[in-house]
Sequence to fold (448 residues):
Amino acid sequence: MADQQSGGGSGGGRGLSRRKFLQGATTAGVGGLVVGGAGGFVAGRGSKSSTNTTGGTGASTEPILIGSASPVTGPFASDGQQMVRGQQLAIDEINANGGLLGRQLKLQVLDSKAQEPDVMKNVLQKLVSQNVAAIFAGFTTYTSVEFPIVAQAGMPMFHVNTWHGNVEYVQQNNITNIFQGDPSETSYGSGFITLVNQFIDSGAWTPSSKSTYVVTSNDPYSLAIAKAFKAGMEKQCWKTLGFEQYTVPQADYGGQLVKIRNNPPGIVFFSSYAPGDEASFIKQFAESPTPSLVYEQYAPSIPEYLDLAKDAANGVLWSTVVGVLAGDDRAKAFIDKFTQKFSRPPGFSNAGDQYDLVHLWAEAAAVAGDPFDFAKVNAAVANTVYRGTCGAYSFLPGTLTCYPYPDETLDPSLGMAHLTFQIQNGEQVLISPDPYTTGKFELPSWLR
Fold:
């Protein structure tokens, strides 16, 4: 994965060179910016006493317990493994640097399975009862039914569920301790439409027809993305030839592909986050491809996808609103450490964001002086801009979510980059946005 200095991707860089920006982001020190790697600082404030009798720093040498509510089993287990490994790597680094305020960290992992409401409520109740200092939930429910448990307990919780309903729940209920470490899904559809227009305007791709075929899982997240894409393309006078929903998991897409092959669209848009489903679809599509661009939502970020899809994935476009910046020096260091520890590289999303969020929390807890002074820790998190392996984390007042670059801000030092990759020769090539790109869009082999 070469660190190319000039990419052909789209974006909002506005003439700022990639190397100059990345160097500036790593050394910036304005406002509340935290750039990571402050293990010595995290360890060096352990003399501050605490009045908390259940878990404060004080003179205790007991490990500080932090909770992980991650899908260890079930359809999203491969993503859950990425989450837990990212969390553990961050904890190992902090502990190796002396711990947090003089104490070691210990990860308590509970299986959130498929994020059913009863399961999530049970998992979070258990973590709260164990006096964890923070919770890293990865995915959450679509009903936010578990949020009141954490809101009442007060400890910070971090998730990347990418569902706007969670954002609205936090805002409507004035919750101050549940942070979403990425933007919501609302920018996925519009972001890809912008990229499609750039492909056409630049002459990089000419659609075989101004038509789309959408296949989507029927969960609220995937449906919201699929509907936004459909509506946006129809506004630009593209015709929707099909809009089909299915329930995860599904392995056979013969019915959908018969319709696609009988009336080939210009774009096939697949919205899901299950790697097995998306790998099955592209393998079946590749047996007799149509003259269509293929976009698959998020799941190619998980290593299992390429393990299953293999060469059939070459040419596929996919995106994530939080992902490892493959060409960035900070991200390269993370990738190297992850690979050394786990004997294979990380995926391009949840290993990196969980690693970042643990470090972000630890530095906020160090600033607060006591990881169990939840009010101070939450305030420190809310006022922090953190530069991690996935770019900039800054939490918007009220919603406590990140916002996307370049979809809603042209400032990459504040916005979380909405990344679009293309799989080329078995490699993940970041084609948008600048200044993060590592390569250029290429016509898939079936379109040449």
The chain is about 35% helix and 15% strand. Residues 167 and 399 are 6 Å apart (CA to CA).
